Transcriptional activator protein Med (Schinkia azotoformans LMG 9581), 317 residues
Amino acid sequence: MKKLLLILATFILLVTACGQPATNLSTTKIGLLLPDTINEPIWGNKGYKGLLLIQSALKADVYYKESMKTRMEVKEALDEFEEEGVNLVFGHGGEYGPFFEELHNDYPDMDFVYFNGNFTAENVTSIKFESHAMGFFGGMVAAEMSKTKHIGVISAFNWQPEVEGFVKGAEYQDPNVVVDVHYTKSWSNKEKALKAYSEMEKTGVDVFYPAGDSFNLPVIEAVKEDGHYAIGYVSDQLDLGESTVLTSTVQHVEGLYKLIATQYIAGKFQHGIKTFDFGDDVISLGDFSPEVPDELKVEVNKAVELYKLTGEFPGRK
């Protein structure tokens, strides 16, 4: 049995992002289940930082369990959470939906939150990033910056809204652009992703959007080596190469977890299927590369502000 880890109060990060603590926090305990480790450079680390942000901002006791992949592991973790008096459990991925659906009645004093599912109950919530828009704005940048007018998406699954958004944004920016899309059917299959990259690169694709967690970084490294452009995914990835990463489509998991925990502690959280977008300040574009012309930056930023105000995308040029 993996040891339950209580994050030490002395190990506090992200203090500068903290708001005012909520009240009645002494009984609040929050747990996090991770499919991989806290050191997984994109998704896992963002979940862990979200937990740290909850601890530092809301003064709640927080716990986490890594590599929770099977029903037995999840059940054992929830039993340990129950012993510690955990009230709210985040399942850091869509894979926890079926587990929570099966097990939630066994833990009536716990509330469960997970990503990208359709099952809800009196103590179960599914949260979703409304990621069509972030893909749209990333597609605008990619289409404008492509020299060959041939760009590509390497995505994990065909249900990802950011893929359709990317295609629509690219077509808005330049109706003549060609967009190739390849699905790996896995968040972590680096071999498939790199094979797709190699095949696309041979056909003239010169801007890539690797929309997957674990394979995102090796694809961007290949893009950098070959002198092409990329759009970052989930994190602001400009630090991977200012002349390579044009911008990033950022999902602020940390801020979303803090938002939910704040509502929960205040007694204002309601279960159901909940979506979050640019207007909730949990999705944004990352910093722009110096390669991106100022006029394109202005155009894209105006489109983002229009969307935040009205929910509308810019019309066809």
